[in-house]
Design a protein that fits this description.
With 239 residues, the chain is of the alpha/beta class. It contains 7 helices and 9 strands, in the order βββαβαβαααβαβββα. The strands form 2 sheets. It has a 6-stranded mixed sheet, sandwiched between helices. A 3-stranded antiparallel sheet has the order 2-1-4, with helices on one face. The N and C termini lie far apart (39 Å).
């Protein structure tokens, strides 16, 4: 059984008497441990597709199945699917560690255990130094890492994240993409989006969304992973 399956997903928005098709008969299959990236311009519907895939928003037509069940009805939010909205809200006085442990505490995890798991998640995401930093004081790359730590602290099998490198300094972007690649290598499926070609780096599979239609291979293939950095010509020649 595939981890995530979308079949014939359609979604429209309406403004007055005008209807705009956002998603048109979208099919997508994602397996455990796969890192797939959706490319599209702003307004292309990629954020909507991610929300539908994560069970945050229902499609108008079509089916979404996570491990064989409807995530809107049969999966509690955060149970198996880690939806990672960005940017983090800069809650006054709330530290990064407090933000990461919020979901755990809400689920009844004892405070000491929640703190341990929160610290572990921050370390895993390269954000241990941010633990005591208020959210308002985080740099963009730090904010993404903390958001991912908050998500993986819940031990999801699928992470869904929209445009993780948007607003992040160029020098910091590879680190974020390597982090997502690393999660997939550990067996966590990752479904991300991007509006820039550089955001496709490290993915097992890339797809494009335009005019409501998903282009590319909707099912896993044997395509090679997109490298994070192209090898210099001299390395290719000698490699």
């Amino acid at each position: 059984m595939s981890l995530l399956v979308l079949e014939g997903v359609c979604k429209s928005t309406r403004t007055g008497a005008r209807e705009h098709t956002v998603l048109r008969n979208v099919d997508l299959v994602l397996e455990a441990g796969e890192y797939a990236v959706l490319y599209g311009r702003r307004g292309s519907g990629r954020s909507t597709l991610l929300r539908v895939a994560a069970g945050v928003e229902a499609p108008d037509r079509g089916r979404v199945r996570f491990e064989g069940v409807d995530p809107m009805r049969d999966v509690a939010l955060g149970d198996g699917i880690g939806f990672c909205p960005l940017p983090l809200g800069a809650a006054e006085g709330r530290s990064a560690l407090e933000q990461v442990t919020m979901g755990l505490l809400a689920r009844g995890t004892p405070p000491a255990r929640a703190r341990f798991r929160g610290e572990e998640a921050l370390e895993r995401c390269g954000a241990s130094a941010c633990a005591k930093t208020p959210l308002a004081g985080l740099e963009p790359a730090e904010s993404v890492r903390v958001a991912l730590a908050r998500t993986i602290a819940m031990e999801p099998r699928l992470v869904v994240i929209d445009d993780p490198t948007h607003g992040v300094e160029l020098i910091e972007r590879d680190g974020i993409l390597l982090l997502l690649r690393g999660l997939a290598n550990e067996g966590i499926a990752v479904l991300a989006s991007t509006g820039e070609p550089t955001g496709l780096s490290g993915a097992d599979r890339t797809l494009a969304l335009g005019e409501g239609e998903l282009r590319g291979n909707p099912t896993p293939s044997l395509a090679t992973v997109v490298p994070l950095r192209p090898l210099p010509d001299e390395q290719r020649a000698t490699g």
